[in-house]
Each structure stands twice: as C-alpha cells, then as structure tokens.
Design goal:
- InterPro entries: Beta-barrel_TonB, Beta-barrel_TonB_sf, Plug_dom, Plug_dom_sf, TonB-dep_OMP_SusC/RagA, TonB-dep_OMP_SusC/RagA_CS, TonB-dep_rcpt-like.
- Belongs to the TonB-dependent receptor family.
- This protein is mainly β.
- Helices cover 11% and strands 46% of the residues.
- The chain has 12 helices and 31 strands.
- The chain has an 18-stranded antiparallel beta sheet that branches. A 5-stranded mixed beta sheet has the order 1-6-7-4-5.
- Helix 4 packs antiparallel against helix 5.
C-alpha cells in the first residue's frame, strides 16, 4: 500500500490506514467514485448535499472535522500528484486501490495538508506480456425511496380554515383571504366540501417522482512488453436526476504509461481528461425560503379548486395571489422557469522518474500540472420565485448570469529513499522537498430586466439584452473579476523506519511547511509524528497458537496542520465605491475597509493519538482491525466579536479548540476461497463524537443560523460542550419531532 511518497507492505504499517481494492469497487453499479467507496472504509464518511446527478460535490470527512469555520476536506493524492476533489474526476473502473491515512503519525508526512486525513488513489496499469481489451457497462433506474409526510386535501383545508378563523375576518391571512383562495368561508358549505374531496396532488411525486435512467460504458485497452506497460481507459456516464429537469453527462479519458528504461532508471506518465455537464438547479439554489424547490414541493397546496370567482387556475399559470399570501410557487412551474448548466473540464498530466543512484538508494521525482475550467450559466424566467424577492431589484423580469473560473495547479516533489537490512535489523530513511502552487481566477456577469418571453438559450447566447426600466440608470449588478488567488506552499519532510526481527517496528516523520496564506513570522508550521508497533505473533510464547497468523498492536502520536483556509483571511480588505464623501461640493465614491485585518494568524493544528490492533486468523482468511483515537484541534480560526467603537464588529483570531474521539472496527472474511470461486465479505463500523472544547476566553457560545431551505431559519448555538460543525442536539431533536402538518403552516 501507499503511505506517502513510498509503498510499503501492509503488515509493516504502524499507523492507522484503511484500504479498498479494485475488486471491491469495480462492479458497483454507480457513476461516481465517491458512491463506490461509500461505507467501505471505516472512519471515512461520504455524504451528498442533495443528490444532484453525478454527485460532483460529495463531502468527505475522515474521523469527523476539527475546524469550525474552515474546510475539513481531506487531501487527495492520485498517482503521487495532489488533485483537488479527485473523486469527481476519476471513474471507479480506473481505480486500482484507495488508501486512507487517518492518524497524524501517518498524515504528518503531508504536514499542513494532512490534518483532515489523506486519500491516496492509485490507478490501474497494464500487464506485461499481453494485451487486454475489456468492456464494463451497466444500466439502471433510480427512484426516490422516501418522501416527507404532508396533509391531504381534507386535513389541509380544515387546518387552513382554523388558522383563518384565528386571524379574524379582515386580519392578515384571515377569512377573507381564505374565501378568495378557496371560494367560500363557510366551513360546511358545498364548495369547501367539494374541495375536501378534490384529488390529492402529490407535488413531491410530480417533482421527484420520475424513474431516472442511468448508464455507464467503460472500454479499456491495457498491455505491455517486458519492462513497459500501458493502460488506456475511456468512460461515458449518462444519468438522469430524480428531480424533473436535471441530468448529468460525463466523458473521461485516462492514460497511464510505465517503462523501465534501464536497470536503474524508470519513467511513468499519467494523462487524464474529464468533461462533465450537470443540468438542473438542484433542490435549493440559495437555501432561502422563497427559492427552495424542496419547500415548494412539500408546502404548496395539495389540491386544485375554484377560487372565489369560480375559476380553476391552470397548473401551468403563476398564481400571484397565492404567492403574495404564502410565498409559495407551483414547484413544476418553478423548475420549468429556472435553468442551470454547470460545465467543468479538467486536464491533468503527471510524470515520475525513479533513478537508483546506488544499491538501496533511490531518487524519485514527481511532477504534475492540473487545470480546471468552470462555466456556470443560470437563467430565471418570468415565473421564477427568485424574481419576486424584495432584494435583487429584479422587477419581475427575467435575469441571467454567467460565472467562469480557472484553477491552475502545479505540484512537484523530490525524494531520496534509502533502505538497509542486515540480519534482524531493517532501516529505512526518506527525505524530500515539495512545492505546491495554485492560482484561481474568476469572472462574473449578470443581466437583469430581460424580455419576458426570452428563453434560457437566447439569454445566455447574448446576455447583453436587458432593457433598463424607467428610472433605472444601470444594471443592479455590475460585471466583476476577483483578485487572483495565488497560493504557494514550500515543504521539507523526512521519515525514518526501523524494524527489529519484524517484531518491533518504529516510524518517525517530520515535516516543515511554509505557506503564502500567512504573514511573515507565522508562515512556517512544523508537524512531527511517531508510531510504534509490536508484532505479538512473532513472540516465542505466542507461536503455539497456529490459528493466529498475525497479531500486531499499534500506538501512534502526531501533529498535522490545516491549510484549507480562505485566501487573504488575515488581510485588511477594502470595498470600492462603498464610502461616498464630499469633495469640492461633489460626491465622490471612496473605498472603505470591510474587516479588521490580523497579521498574527497562524495554523490550525490537529494532535492525534491512536491505539490499534491488527489480527489475521486461519491462514489470513479472517482479518480484523480495531482503532481507538482521540484528536484535538487547537488555534481555531474564528470570527470573534470585538467592541464596535473600533469601527468593526468582528475580527478573525486563533482561539478555541475542538476534539474528536471514536472507535473503528473492520472485519474481512473469505467465506469461500478455492481455484474457481472466491466469496469475500467485509463489514465495518465507526463511532465518532465531536465536541467543541473552547471558543476562547469569555466566549462560551457562538450564534449562527440553521436554515434548511424549506422552513424558517432556527437559531443555532455553537459552544463549549456542543458538537463541532453541527447544531445544538436539542434543537435538532425538536426539529425532527415536528408533526407532518407543520409543513403546510404558512400565512394565508
């Protein structure tokens, strides 16, 4: 397995590592590598925000998250190259193995990027001596498995009548409003009785009820001759979303070439291209009450009845009266009037050279370049609820926007690897340096006041078609370009390993990282790690137990940093044109500071402690691994409230700490294993308890807002003793206990 800049035998690992091989994921009928790995690695949690086709933005957490305000995503390394969000640009069929480094003794070799765990992916390569052409494909249908309970027409109408009675005849949402919407204010009238017996309109089924077809096709060509192997893989993924109007299309090319030029020189090349398009706005674009598709699907009135004028509203027509009283919109009409197309192209090229300088001493260099282009186009038509929000100055006219971004990444590492073995002693030394550079640029343009009948295609093809209404002198949102985010990391690292008689094992690592995200004086972070292991099964007193093939006890301790923070976090930033002042009897638009800078910001640091045991029984047919850990993260980057007389309300400071403690269990067994048939079963379980230990001196709670997009935001308190990264448990419990009818409680 790969544990950071080198490969080792699994039995020699002294840290906490979870692994999965190609055989376990290649036949899983999913389009996403993240989905294929879900539930297969103890202590690794993969979740999707809203089930968008393709699952391009899957959240990965290794042993919880230590940071409250910053990113807790792990580091991804593919064939020795660091790649952001690698699971979205690799096909499951191209993966040979996935190794996840979980404790700091293992991740400390990655220093500032290792606090959240490290996911190391190795892609497949060819086989010497033969050429293999293979096809792997599948097709299937997705269907929603569970929906929220909502009121039927009878209960819904009775509940709305009761609420209208409480408001009175002329009060807001009172009986007059009820009569205008449902045709009568007499509870026992024939009109309302017919409405109670009206067919139930299940908007969840209309919105999310389709059978979503998906298919994957993978063709690979692999082979080689003596000393040279190659592998070429072509993948096409097509997937419909269960939500109306959503789909996903991805095309992948993966090429790997390895050759042994001489007995001492090896060379490798990896080329990867990913082209994917995701259509559809998802369940919630902004998470607001008005624009949430999920909220409209569960709260919009579940029946169609004549109003006071006797007219039954066409479901394809916008009901302005109902919207004004409830801020709800027909969910089908909403989806058909909103367009979102997210196109991403990623090109990655990496190369490696290995040269044996002398016996047992090898020099390896690895370099990679990655470029990602993003193009997001959105359109909101005449019936989109976004246009009816007070903010935004849309004036009920269509709007369109185009957002583009380019991310360039350069990564290079150089290592010297020395190994020595004499008798019962084995020694390994590794030293190296690494540079990592990333540059992000983005542009954004938005046009309001488009013609009412314009289509999304026409609007995005020529976005400059807005006509300013009377009294409007300019577009509310002007085109913007962000300050280029140019981030650089320079590192030096080393690892030392020692084994005595394959019985007592030691691994020590150290890394120093200098990051451009911090100011001089705080740019360098130092991250040590150490682990020991005792192979009890090698002891004389244990050799009589022949059924036990391997029993190893592990203990580790280490520190790692988190560089996944925002750029310019400690800088004093200014907003142009936000501070008007008078000069020579004229108003001049000046610039004003938006926040108070802090040149003393430093690394968030995670300290990990781990104890584990590895057990193999019955000729290695049964393998069991258990790990218990306790991680603490200190110097959290938090916006702390400061006295308002300073001219600002908050400042980012290093205060507070969190902890994560847990237990991980994994059991693998070869139920049947012979020449013709193999049946292997794997089970794992993990328990993690995250806790905020401190938010700094004098600060016990940090207010926030819990808004899920389909109900009004609820207050959330983050404070000492509460879970890190989540709402107060008591608030969460109360939310889950709300009766189903509450989903329809809106003002009428």
């Amino acid at each position: 397995m790969v544990i950071g800049y080198q490969e080792v035998q699994r039995r020699d690992v002294t840290g906490s590592v979870s692994s999965v091989g190609a055989q376990q994921i290649k036949d899983v009928p999913v389009n996403s590598a993240a989905e294929a790995l879900t539930g297969r690695l103890a202590g690794v949690q993969l979740t999707s925000a809203e089930g968008t086709p393709g699952n391009a933005n899957v959240q990965v957490r290794v042993r919880g998250g230590g940071s409250i305000t910053q990113d807790n995503s792990p580091l991804f390394v593919v064939d020795g190259i660091q790649i952001e969000n690698a699971l979205s640009v690799i096909a499951p069929q191209d993966i040979a193995s996935v190794d996840v480094l979980k404790d700091a003794s293992a991740t400390a070799i990655y220093g500032a990027r290792g606090a959240n765990g490290v996911v190391i992916i190795t892609t497949k390569k060819g086989i010497e001596g033969r050429t293999v052409i293979s096809y792997n494909g599948f097709a299937g249908v997705r269907r929603i498995s569970n929906t929220l309970g909502v009121l039927k027409p009878d209960d819904y109408l009775n509940y709305q009548f009761e609420r209208a009675q409480q408001a009175g005849a002329t009060g807001t949402g009172g009986l007059n409003s009820f009569k205008a919407l449902f045709g009568s204010s007499n509870f026992n009238s024939d009109t309302l009785q017919r409405a109670r017996n009206a067919p139930f309109v299940d908007w969840q089924d209309e919105t999310f009820g389709r059978d979503a077809f998906q298919q994957t096709h993978n063709v690979s060509l692999a082979g080689g001759v003596k000393g040279t192997t190659y592998s070429l893989s072509l993948t096409r993924n097509l997937e419909e979303g269960i939500q109306r109007g959503s789909d996903y299309d991805r095309k992948l090319i993966n090429f790997r070439f390895d050759t042994k030029a001489t007995d001492r020189l090896r060379f490798g090349l990896n080329v990867r291209f990913n082209d994917q398009t995701t259509n559809g706005p998802g369940t919630s674009t902004t998470g607001s009450n008005t624009t949430s598709r999920l909220r409209n699907a569960v709260q919009y009135q579940p029946l169609s009845v004549p109003n006071f004028s006797g007219r039954v509203l066409d479901p394809n027509t916008f009901d302005d009266d109902f919207f004004q009283n409830s801020s709800l919109v027909n969910p089908i009409l909403t989806i058909d009037n909103e367009y979102r197309r997210d196109k991403r192209r990623t090109f990655n090229i990496g190369g490696n050279v290995s040269f044996e300088i002398m016996k047992n001493l090898t020099f390896r260099t690895t370099a990679g370049f990655d470029v990602t282009n993003g193009d997001l186009g959105t359109f909101n038509g005449r019936y989109s609820p976004l246009l009816r929000q007070p903010a935004g100055n849309y004036q009920n006219l269509p709007t369109a926007s185009i957002s583009t971004g380019i991310q360039n990444t350069l990564n290079n590492s150089n290592v010297l690897d020395y190994s020595f073995k004499k008798g019962v002693h084995s020694v390994g030394l590794l030293v190296g340096e690494e540079i990592y550079q990333q540059r992000n640029t983005s542009q954004y343009i938005q046009t309001n006041f488009l013609p009412l009948d314009i289509t999304a295609e026409r609007a995005l093809a020529n976005i400059n078609q807005g006509v300013l209404p009377t009294g409007q002198t300019s577009q509310p949102v002007l085109p913007t370009t962000d300050i280029p985010q140019d981030y650089r990391l320079l590192s030096g690292f080393g690892r030392a390993t020692y084994s005595y008689d394959d019985k007592y094992l030691f691994t020590g690592t150290f890394r120093a990282d200098g990051s451009s995200k911090y100011k001089p004086g705080n740019r360098w972070g130092y991250f040590p790690g150490a682990s020991v292991a005792w192979r009890i099964s090698r002891e004389e007193f244990f050799k009589s137990l022949t059924m036990v093939n391997d029993l190893k006890l592990r203990l580790s301790y280490g520190k790692a940093g988190n560089n996944r923070i925002a750029d310019f976090l400690g800088d004093q930033l200014f907003s142009a044109g936000s501070a008007p002042y008078a000069l020579n009897h004229a108003i001049v638009l000046g610039s004003a500071a938006t926040r108070l800078g802090n040149n003393n910001l430093k690394w968030e640091t995670t300290t990990s402690r781990n104890v584990g045991v590895d057990l193999a029984l019955l000729d290695n047919r049964v393998q069991f691994t258990a790990d218990a850990y306790y991680n603490t993260t200190s110097d959290l980057l938090i916006n702390r409230t400061i006295p308002a007389f300073l001219g600002y309300t908050t400042q980012t400071q290093n205060i507070g700490s969190t902890s994560n403690r847990g237990l991980e269990l994994q059991l693998t067994g070869a139920i049947v294993r012979n020449e013709n048939f193999t049946w292997t079963a794997t089970a794992n379980a993990a328990f993690n308890r995250g806790r905020i230990e401190s938010l700094g001196t004098g600060l016990d709670e940090r207010p926030a807002s819990l808004g899920l997009g389909w109900h009004r935001p609820h207050p959330r308190l983050r404070g000492a003793g509460r879970p890190a990264g989540g709402p107060d448990v008591r608030l969460r419990d109360r939310l889950h206990q709300r009766p189903p009818g509450l989903l329809h409680r809106r003002r009428l």
